[in-house]
Amino acid sequence: MPEHRGNRPPPSGTPNGPPHNVTEPHNSVAANTRTPDCVIAVGIQTGFIAPPTQHIPAAVESFLARARVEHRFFTRFINPGPGGPFAKLLGWHKLQNPKETALAPEVEALATSVVEKNGYSPFSGTGLAAELERIGANTVLVCGIDTDVCVLSTAAGLFELGLHPVVVADLCASTGGTAAHTAALTILPRYTGAHNIITTTDLQTHN
């Protein structure tokens, strides 16, 4: 089940078919897009902070400090270790110790709920889907790390639940670098629709 943090006020801070140009997300929000009910911030953890992703914690902190979003779910990936698929199939052993799995300091206080997961999807083996149903979620902003892995999986999962995922492209990045991030922005419209890939500027325009 998600770990509830209560409705903590965000800290004050200073702001930060596929589209024709995948480096520039669709610049309009669908006409039926409602004010977002909640945000799912994916994998903003110390173990995922690298040169291509190091700007994300501060950018998300800045955005949420001024956004009117009551429910803020942060996912926390924990590698299941030797018996899990990441070690067995990929030979990947990171994100097992508490130091690496911790949320980045910039965003830790922003979470109203923390969802611990052991795979790409935040819906497998967690209570997140039930919690979204309980709060009556409809439009869900998605941001975080990695665009091409867990962000994509989260957006696809929301779509399959019948919810409206909106990926905020400039609040996403990949440890795989710009090429991996851009590849995900090419693929995501096939999952959720090009009009559901936006930027923080689009949200400011439509609020």
Describe the structure.
- It is a single chain.
- This protein is α/β, with parallel strands linked by helices.
- The protein is about 30% helix and about 20% strand.
- Strands 1-4-3-2-5-6-7 form a seven-stranded mixed β-sheet.
- The protein is globular.
- About 15% of the residues have low confidence.
List the topology elements.
Blueprint: E1 3-4, E2 38-42, H1 56-66, E3 71-77, H2 85-90, H3 98-101, E4 113-117, H4 128-134, E5 139-145, H5 147-160, E6 164-173, H6 178-192, E7 197-198, H7 200-206
Parallel strand pairs: 2-3, 2-5, 3-4, 5-6, 6-7
Antiparallel strand pairs: 1-4
Helix pairs in contact: 5-6
Radius of gyration: 16 Å
Task: Give the count of helical stretches.
Answer: 7
Oligomer: single chain
Proportion of helical residues: 25-40%
Order of helices and strands: EEHEHHEHEHEHEH
- What is the number of strand segments? 7
Q: What's the gist of this structure?
A:
This protein has 207 residues and is of the alpha/beta class. The chain is built from 7 helices and 7 strands; from the N terminus they run E-E-H-E-H-H-E-H-E-H-E-H-E-H. It has helices at 56-66, 85-90, 98-101, 128-134, 147-160, 178-192, 200-206, and strands at 3-4, 38-42, 71-77, 113-117, 139-145, 164-173, 197-198.
Write out key terms for the chains shown.
31% helix; 7 helices; 7 strands; 207 residues; globular; alpha/beta
